[in-house]
Amino acid sequence: MRYLIGNWKSYQTISQTQTWLTDFSNAKPKINNRIKLILCAPFTDLAEAKRIIHHYGLQIEVAAQDVSPFEEGKHTGEINAKMLSELTTYCLVGHSERRREFNETSEIVAEKVARLIEANLSPIICLDTPYLEEQIKLLLHKRIPLERCLFVYEPLAAIGSGQPADPFEVEMIAQKISFLTESRCPILYGGSVTPENVISYARHHCVDGVLVGGESLNPAHFVQMMDNLSYES
Ligand code: PGA
Question: Residues lining ligand 1, judged by CB closer than 6 Å?
Answer without folding.
Answer: 7, 154, 159-160, 190-193, 211-215
